[in-house]
Amino acid sequence: MATIDEFNALDIRVGTVVEASPFPEARKPSIKLVIDFGAELGQLRSSAQLTKHYTPADLVGRQVVAVVNFPPRRIAGYNSEVLVLGAMPAPDDVILLALERPAPTGSRIG
Fold first, then answer.
1. How many angstroms separate the Cα of 49 from the Cα of each of 40, 56, 110?
2. Does the pLDDT of residue 91 top 90, yes or no?
3. Which residue of 7, 14, 82, 83 sits 20 to 30 Å from the alpha carbon of 59, by its own alpha carbon?
4. How far is Cα 61 from Cα 63, in angstroms, rounded to an integer?
5. 106: closest CA among 36, 45, 47?
6. Alpha carbon of 94 to those of 5, 10, 17, 36: distances in Å?
7. CA-based angle 67:94:37, to the nearest 5?
């Protein structure tokens, strides 16, 4: 069981995808994302395994929810700085979490 303190240690924010491109170099089918988290955090990058339901064109302009305080991970030479969150009905199937209505970029999730 996780504690509330462990949950509160996560910095989870709303971001807006500003760039998305295919990532053929990744071992698992993925998309490279550049996500704007507002003035406080700026633009951060992520590699996300979203190809089952999304194309890069589907993602630009979309708001996503991401953990922004994990250490960066190097994936096929690409520096993935945030973890985009989604439901995973299967290991290769990610459905992005969606906001009920638009929220300001950089808003904290809690």
1. 26, 11, 24
2. no
3. 7
4. 7
5. 36
6. 27, 20, 16, 21
7. 30
Residue with tokens 């991970």: 73
pTM for the full model? Answer: 0.95
The two tokens of residue 68 are 């922004």
Residue-wise pLDDT for 10-41, tens only, equals 999 999 999 999 999 999 999 999 999 999 99
3-state secondary structure the chain: CCCHHHHHCCCEEEEEEEEEEECCCCCCCCEEEEEECHHHHCEEEEEECCCCCCCHHHHCCCEEEEECCCCCEEECCEEECCEECEEEEECCEEEECCCCCCCCCCCEEC
* pLDDT tens, residue by residue, 54-73: 999 999 999 999 999 999 99
Residue 15: what are its φ and ψ, rounded to 5°? Answer: -130, 165
